[in-house]
Amino acid sequence: MSDTHQHSVVFVRTDMLPEQEPPAAERGIVKWMRQNLFSSIPNGILTLASFYAIYALLSGVMPWVLNGIWDAPSIRACREILQGNAGGCFAVLTERWNQLLFGFQYPEEIYWRPTLALALLFIALAPVLFSKSFPRQLLIFTGLYPFIAFWLIWGGSLLVPVFALLGILAGYMVYSRYVAQSFAAGFFGGIAAALVFWWITGFLPTENVLAIQAVESRSIGGFMLNLILGVVCVSLSIPIGIALALGRQSNMPIIKWICVVFIEFIRGVPLITLLFVANVVLAYFLPPGTTFDLILRVIIMITMFASAYIAEVIRGGLAALPRGQYEAADSLGLDYPQAMRLIILPQALKISIPGIVNVAVGLFKDTTLVSIISMFDLVGMIRGPILASTEWNGVYWELFGFAAVLFFIVCYGISQYSQWLERQLQTDHR
Amino acid sequence: MTTLTDPPGGSFRLSMLINDTRYRSYTFQFIALMVLIACFAYLGSNLVQNLRDAGLNISYQFLGEPSNYDINQRLVEYDSQSSHWRAAIVGVLNTLLVSFLACLTATAIGVVAGVLRLSNNWLVRKLMSIYVEAFRNVPVLIWIIIIFTIMTAVMPAPRAFRGEDAEATMLFGAFAFTNRGVYIPKPILEPMGWFVLGVFVTSIFGALFYRRYATKLLYDTGKLLPMGWPTLAIVFVPAILIYFILGRPISLEYPVLGGFNFTGGIQIFGSLIALWFALAIYTGAFIAENVRAGIQAVSKGQTEAAASLGLRPNRIMNLVVLPQALRVIIPPLISQYLNITKNSSLAIAVGYMDITGTLGGITLNQTGRAIEAVLLLMLFYLTISLSISALMNVYNNSIKLKER
């Protein structure tokens, strides 16, 4: 056959042609754009509209950022330098950064103390957040951290946090001694031991022993206050939330109804009314003559608020567990505290982590509400002392933009962590 | 649950209250109840003691006294001689007004953003996720203050509208955006106007009836009646005809610049706008996530099955995807509405006179009746939350998948 072909056909290719590149419209960036930006006419219009929106936004914001003045004593000086051009007066941030971060009464020479506490917070949180990549021994530091942070931020005698720590240790020793016999005996015995220890040490003189400069609670402000409220209230509300969730699932009617009423009441009212309670009402319910720190009252109310929400999240986790898990624990002969500690809660908490993180982010954002009851957190500092000062009256965007960016960084970071953790904890194969 | 071992007979011993699981729960409940009663008794005795020391008592008499303060944004008649109770009513209505407006707007924003986040247009997808992340991760209080600042510090003063070459102009000659609020035209209804309105409302019901009839016809006989344009026609044509036949009984009163300020029209204060839009775009970001999750929760197999039955894309969306997605979307949507209502209490930060601003703000400060005012305030929010959750339970039960 090939012979006949050679004579009848002028040319026959014997080897393959090299592969051609796809046409220009079907490769590289052009293809990507055709698929993702201009796949149909409405899509094209949408794309152009989006480009215009981006352009409008950037053309408004970029000159303002790029022409920004970072060094001026007041807004009038800023305006003189700008001479009518668009530009931000970021000098307010360089002038007042310390007030924005620490509040206007915190002594300047000891800014290093809360800063150090913040740095240590990351070390303390690391073994909790990334339990796989850090040794478990670091958890000891996490346990010590609240006392270190308290001493660093509030100052005063070292003995106060040390005694608080020793009281908890005493309680723990009593607990671990008796927990084998009965959980209730260990638990209540531990609490009693801690209380007795604190009551006794309350008589010891702690003034000026190993003391560093003490700072009053009302001097604490700025973003530091938001962070303190957020961290303290979230960490306190998780154990309370677990207890409330277990109480709500309990089959003892009185305990169940106490928990239901508490949770539904707290979830039904806005946080601001609870802050009003902390501000003006709580004092009526305390023994006559007691003065209570406003910051402590606020912490109590926000913790109650957060624990109700966390209880609902954990209840969701408890309800999501298959009944077989409860029955398996019973059939092993575990009593209620053992079943909860060893079988139910580890699984239920794992399911509820994303929800807990959501509550934590929401709560951290809600700490700005304390500015309404005239505490000087970040928003309170901006609206109060800084915008009211003669130098910076009228610098709105720079200050609120700064506050928004700070909150965004923290909240976005936490939510990204939660998504990462969800992927890590996903043990089912999908 | 039955146990194989019969309970041992014999007399009841006191130690069984702790050691016997049958009786232990009674012990615990008794202890809990006692602790609770002790706590309340302690707090109550402190309260009585403190009130006696301060020479106060718990009484709601103050609600009847004149309030002596003014409220600019109000839906019902009110002046500074009205009672505190009246002020609280104005506050309640203002709370409901801003919550209602914000719920509507947030739903619209959230649905659009949620659907666009699933668009196959890369740029739009990214823009929407930037919107969602930016607004979800910044406190709503900051957004409220930022929008309030725009409304009061950036908008032109009314006098900027004056003169031949005014710095600011009214939008369509009808809307004026000033730093004292937004002025919009006010509809004036003559007696016959109510008739036109009545016709309009009736024709909305008529349109709904027509749609039900068309659906029933479709299910019974398979005959497909057009839905879209007849609905529009039934809603609008009769009302417009009546409007012209009766000689245009509805007119608009435009705001006009007089003296130092605009007169006429409806004045919407900046505080309301700030609260409304801040709550709407903040909650809209959350709703967008709910909508996206709801649509993604419908498995792809459903879409493919519908397509293989030969349904057109918009019918797939309407008949297969949306009914299933709504089941996932609506419960979190309602709890977002609840959040809007509770977050509307932040009105006090911008001076919008909602219930927190009147009862929990000025009334509380003027009368010093902290306990009573805060208690009433909590009761109001609790009522709203509990009734919305009751509605939600009814709804959840009605859409629950009927399983065997």
Explained architecture:
The complex is a heterodimer of chains A (430) and B (404). Chain A has 430 residues and is an all-alpha fold. Chain A has helices spanning 2-8, 28-36, 41-66, 75-82, 91-102, 112-129, 138-154, 159-178, 183-201, 222-249, 253-268, 271-281, 294-320, 323-331, 336-366, 378-388, 396-425, and strands spanning 156-157, 211-212. Among the domains of chain A are: 24-61; 218-430, Orthogonal Bundle (MetI-like fold). A two-stranded antiparallel sheet of chain A has the order 1-2. Chain A is globular. Chain B has helices at residues 16-19, 21-54, 84-116, 122-136, 140-154, 191-221, 228-245, 270-297, 300-308, 313-343, 355-367, 370-399, and strands at residues 176-178, 181-184, 186-189, 250-253, 256-258, 261-263, 266-268. Chain B has a three-stranded antiparallel β-sheet. In chain B, strands 3-4 form a two-stranded antiparallel ribbon. In chain B, β5 and β6 (261-263) form a beta hairpin. In chain B, α10 packs antiparallel against α12 (370-399). The model of chain B has no long low-confidence stretch (mean pLDDT 83). The interface between A and B is large, with 54 and 51 residues.
> For the largest interface in this structure, which chains are involved and how many residues does each contribute?
A-B, 54 and 51 residues
Distance between the termini of chain A: 57 Å
CATH class membership of the domain at 84-185 and 254-399 in chain B: Mainly Alpha
Question: Biggest sheet of chain A, strands in spatial order?
Answer: 1-2
The class by helix and strand makeup of chain B works out as mainly alpha
Can you say what the CATH homologous superfamily of the domain at 84-185 and 254-399 in chain B is?
Answer: MetI-like
Approximately what portion of the residues of chain A adopt beta-strand conformation? Answer: under 5%
* CATH architecture descriptor name of the domain at 218-430 in chain A: Orthogonal Bundle
- Which whole number gives the mean pLDDT of chain A? 86
